[in-house]
Amino acid sequence: MDVNALFSRDGDWFIPSPFTTGPWRPDAMNGGPPCSLISLAVHDALESDEQVARIGVDLEKPVPLVPMQLHSSRRQVSRRVAHLSVELRTATDVVASARALLLRGRGPVPLIDRPLPQAPALPDAPLEPAEPDRWAAQPCVFHRDGVEVRFTTGNWGVPGPGTAWIRMAVPLIDGEPTPDLCQLMAIADLGSPLSQAVAPGSGMALINVDVNVTLAGAPSGPWFCIATQGTVSPAGIGLANTQLFDQNGPLGVITHSQIVNAAPTG
Asked: Does residue 70 fall inside a structural domain?
């Protein structure tokens, strides 16, 4: 594998590596790499004292493993509020779009003393897989090779709820440091597969069409914990709710809108 990162740069173009490959088809990405790349535009747009309060990414179609560019525009709503729109484009199509809410705080703020939700302890090592790797014949997939996952409950392909600590195993851009925001957005998409609410053995699974991350503070990587819970209607429309933690404590929430699809077989 020539590039030990999700993408490499060629001028304004980002060239995906095999690490970006998703589980649904070998010619399309997992949702994490495009979300992480989009958040690089958000990170670069932040001004002094601003923080990201929300990023909503719409995965408009399968994101192909081809070169792509970022295009962004900023609208200043007030002195303390700004909106940033981002599009991820191939040479011919918009494949994902996002809107970020950027806020300037006003502190310090006196906080009330109250118990907060706690994440389980970070396991010392990954658990041995309970089942054979369904993607063993696929040389590289993001959820196995692009991230390191330490489950505390649940697993891929097991109906949720599930909880795991996850970190990126390779950088976002070859030869460049990966901002904490991009590390978070790389793993945020994984709340959907870990929340699966479709009966096992049905031949169906839920695939998410968006990734919505709402934050109460600045993320601190590299490890993030996701605690997921999914629901699905008889019509096949699902919702994944994920509590998000970093090693400093509760960080925010992630939601995914989902639709039923034939389960990936590797």
From this structure: yes
Q: 17 in a domain, yes or no?
A: yes
pLDDT (tens digit per residue) in 171-195: 999 999 999 999 999 999 999 999 9
User: With a threshold of 0.85, does the pTM exceed it?
Assistant: yes
Helices (H), 10-100: 32-45
- The Cα–Cα gap between 10 and 124 comes to 38
Cβ within 8 Å of residue 216, ≥6 positions away:
250, 251, 252
Give pLDDT tens digits for 101-158.
999 987 788 878 888 889 999 998 876 665 656 666 778 999 999 999 999 999 887 8
Q: Scan for tokens 């870990």, then name that residue.
A: 194
Q: What's the domain range around 43?
A: 7-104+121-262
**CB half-sphere exposure, 138, CA atoms < 13 A:** 23
Q: Quote the number of domains for the chain.
A: 1
